[in-house]
From TrEMBL:
Coiled coil: none annotated. The lineage of its organism: Bacteria, Bacillati, Actinomycetota, Actinomycetes, Mycobacteriales. It comes from Nocardia terpenica. This is Transcriptional regulator. GO terms for molecular function: DNA binding. Residues 24-79 form the HTH cro/C1-type domain. It comes from the Bacteria. It holds the Pfam family HTH_31. InterPro entries: Cro/C1-type_HTH, DUF5753, Lambda_DNA-bd_dom_sf.
Length: 302
């Protein structure tokens, strides 16, 4: 089942654009200038500068960077860092070819995921996309996008499978840590054949050194004392000075829409929650045994 052993390390991500935007936002705030005021001085719309600061602007001209650096009175060292990041920003990432089948917010998420060093996922409802089989993903999408074309559904499935290159490549694979509630494994998506294949895939993935999967049993109750919705922690690599190139981000996906949590208190709370859930789950070995036994049940019930 695991067949992606490419030596290629696709490091394309939205991180350079986010870093550029963060430095420019910090420089602007350092002057006490509002977003609206700075945009007006640049003869831009407020939304244009806002998108640049959020890392959502695909390209920016050298002259515009020079104008912003001058406007904010940025020192030479920081100006050099800003120009270097601006030079990296125009690269078109592979997932942009799937823009027609994903939301703008999820587009941003895929770019962040591509630049992460480690990903931690808690999922109480369905198997996360990063570890789904094609059959499982297809069964979900045929329900959720019931009026969409088969072609678009297959493109969404293909996008999900391509994202998995991050955890399956040979060089510097992303460290993946997952806590799945028992209900994820017992809720049938598609049919029992699909579920058996999905559980076998989880077993295959968990045999890799960079992937750990634990199961939170029903018997564990509510380890945090309350209901916890799904969330994903994205941790980014460090630079030459040992500082993270981007602060840790929490991504929360729901029926009502997607959200990013970046405030220190929110991130800390999610880290602590994940640790509590991880400790309450079965250990790695027991989790693998449980997944294997349940896979056999699905296979025997066909």
């Amino acid at each position: 089942m695991i067949d992606d052993d490419s030596d290629d390390e696709d490091t394309t991500s939205t991180l350079p654009r986010r870093q550029l935007g963060r430095l420019l936002r910090q420089a602007r705030e350092g002057t006490g200038m509002s977003l609206e005021h700075a945009a007006r001085l640049m003869e831009w719309g407020k939304s244009t500068l806002g998108r640049l600061e959020r890392g959502e602007k695909d390209s920016v001209r050298d002259r515009e960077i020079d104008d912003l650096v001058d406007l904010y009175g940025v020192d030479e060292e920081k100006a050099a860092a800003i120009r270097q990041l601006a030079g990296q920003a125009p690269t078109r990432p592979w997932w942009r070819s799937y823009n027609d089948v994903m939301t703008a917010k999820f587009n941003i998420y895929v770019g962040l995921e591509a630049g992460a060093e480690a990903v931690a996922i808690f999922q109480p409802i369905i198997v996360p996309g990063l570890v789904q089989t094609a059959s499982y993903a297809r069964a979900l999408d045929r329900k959720f996008f019931s009026e969409d074309s088969d072609e678009n559904i297959e493109r969404r499935v293909d996008l999900r499978l391509k994202r998995q290159h991050l955890i399956k490549r040979r060089r510097k694979p992303v460290e993946l840590t997952v806590v799945l509630h028992e209900s994820v494994l017992r809720t049938i998506v598609g049919n029992r054949r699909v579920m058996a294949e999905q559980l076998r895939y989880l077993l295959d993935l968990s045999s890799r050194d960079n992937i750990r999967i634990r199961i939170l049993r029903f018997s564990a109750g509510f380890p945090t004392g309350t209901v916890v919705s799904q969330f994903i922690l994205l941790v980014f690599p460090k630079d030459a000075k040992g500082k993270p190139v981007e602060p840790t981000i929490v991504f929360v996906e729901s029926f009502a829409g997607d959200a990013y949590l970046e405030q220190n208190d929110d991130v800390r709370r999610c880290r602590e929650t994940f640790r509590t859930l991880w400790d309450a789950a079965m250990d790695d070995r027991a989790s693998r045994t449980f997944i294997r036994e349940l896979a056999r049940e699905y296979e025997n019930e066909r």
